[in-house]
Structure formats: structure tokens, C-alpha cells
Amino acid sequence: MSVNPYSPTELFDSISKHEDFLMLDVRNEKDFSRFKVEGPELCHMQNVPYFDFMETEDACVKKVKENKSIRVVCAQEGSAKYVCEILERRGFNVKGYLEGGIKSWGNVLVPKTVFKDSNCEIIQFIRPGKASCSYALIKDKEMMLFDPSRNIQFYLDYAKNRGCKIIRTFETHLQADYIAGSRLISENTGAEFIGNENDFKGAKFTYKAVNDNETFSFSDGAPIVRAIHTPGHTPGSACYVIDEKFVVSGDTIFIRSVGRPDLGGKAEEWAVLLFNTLNNLKKWDKNLQILPGHFMNWEEANKDLVFSKSLDEILQINKGIFDIDNEKDFIKFIKENMRQQPEEYAKIRLVNANLTEVDDEAAETLDLGKNECAATQYAKEKGLKK
What we know:
By secondary structure, the chain is α/β, with parallel strands linked by helices. The protein contains 15 helices and 18 strands. A hairpin with an 8-residue loop joins strand 14 (225-229) and strand 15 (238-242). It is globular, with a radius of gyration of 22 Å. The termini are far apart.
């Protein structure tokens, strides 16, 4: 009798193809509540801890739904394999255990083509475990990255498989909710690290401080990437406009909601910055396609599972926020939706500025957990259009 592992990519494919199965998570209740497998069509989820199987096997087996094929996940791998063997012995249809455990799900990246023509190609890398998106801009044999995650081997392999050299890596801001990959990619490839000095001043690595409206391009001069300083989520937040058609918006605006300005402990001060940024943003070309740094739920994706909408659509979706016409009411809105930020965020900032070092295991632990970067996420959602 043997059970086989399945990869996080295979798991995502199964979820996105609407396969009918039970996702059985055998971690403890606390870890399960903090972070779990999620996806666009994942309907059946159950948490029965591994230690309960060890102590009361019969009772735990009775809890498991018998009419579903079962995929099992644990923290690393061994516990899920143990439970798989029990269930297979008891006659259940077991599909296997997640290779590498929940951490592998947290790091998986799924490439989706946003745009492609003879001039360039834009790839969105969905990170399902973090509800986040990073991006690649490709022209001929050159590649630029935007907000890559710490799974740098994926980006390096992706570039190699495409026959591309990574020439630049942009950060929209100093990330707090995940460990960024730009510094390590720059060190591994020689790619230029681009970031705003208001966020990265004092960081212990070499980077190019980007200026408002500064432009970048590939070797042949096209397409143009234009930086726009959009402070609010952080003082150095920036958006990057690609070919005057697409905007990598980071955590300034999302499809649903805007970036919360309270993570730095200066809620009122940064809320004023964000209020001014949002007023300026309303003057942009409404046809610009926004490429967000995070998504709130899978309903925001199109049929191809790409997260992108026009600025005009986003202004309508978030009408309640963008219609706030004075600083006082905007600050009130922010304060009404404030919530405690995860304890890990303070340390993640230090790691991303290379002001503290952590080993791989500690980095994995810090990096797990859903993002909480939206002003209204997990809150009362005041002001949002229903």
C-alpha cells in the first residue's frame, strides 16, 4: 500500500478545473484558521488534526466525508502521508498528500498572460496562497519584474525557459505582508533594483532611487515603463505605467478597495497622503488597465483567472471610497476600518530592507498567511458598493 504526493501546481489545476474533491487539512486548528488552501472553485474543506487521528482514529475517520475523493495537506508532509495511509486502509478514495506541505502551497506561482502583441508581453504571476500578484514585462530576450515574491528560483527558471535576461526588478513599495524577492534576484542576476527612496532609504543593499515620472525601457527603447509616485499605503508607494496602457498598481489601489495607510503607525498622516493620491488618480486615463498587487477574492478574476480591470471599472466598484470629498471624512473612513496588523509585518519590513536576517525556515514561517493590506478587507466594508 502506498500513497503518492501531488504538487501545489497540480492542486491549483484541480481547483481551477472544478474537480470535486475534499481538501482535508490535518494541521492544528490554530494554524488552519490562520492560513489554508483557497482557490476559485474549492468547495469542500475539512480540518481534522493529525494528533486527533493518532489518539482517536475511529472517531476521526467517521468525521471524514466518504463520498468524496480526498487530498490531504499538513504542515510539512509526514502527517498528511500518515493520515492518507489510514484513510486508504479504510477504503477511502485518497488522491494523495501535498508535496512539501502547506508551505509549498504558500509559495506556488501561477503564470497567466495578461497581454501579448508584437511589441511586448505582460505576465501576471498569481500567488494563490497569498492572494497576491507579481508581474513580468517581456520584450525579445529581456525581462523586467515587478514585486516578485521570495520564491526567486521560480522567476529565474521562468526567465531561463523563456531565454530571457532579467534586466530590472521594480518594487512598488517596501512590502510588509510578504518577503520580497527583488534584492535576491538582483544579487543573483545583476538586474537593477528600482524602488522609491521614501521607502528604501537606509536599506542595506544597492538600489536605484526612482523619481516621479522617470521612465525605463528595454535595449531597443520600447516599451516605456513610467513611474508615478503614489504615496499613501506607504510614503514611497509607486505605480508603474507600461506603454501608457497598463498600470502595475502595487498596494495603492486594488480591484476592490484601496491600500490601507495605517500599517506604518501613522494612520492620519498617511491617510492624508492617500486621499491626495486617490484624487490625483481619478484624473488618469480611465481606459488604463490596472494590475493590482493583491486580490480580495477570486470573483475579481476574469474567465482566464487574470486579475485586471480598467480604472473606470475600479472607480465604479469603489465608488463609496472615491466619492469621499474631504480629508476629515476620509480619515474617519480609514479609522473605522482599521484593525490590528499581523505581528509578523514589522519583522518582514526589516527583512525586506535587509536590516535583519532570518534563515529559510524562519522566512517561510514569516511569509505564510493571507495579506491584510486593503483598507476594508476583513472589516465592515463601509463605503464599498455592494
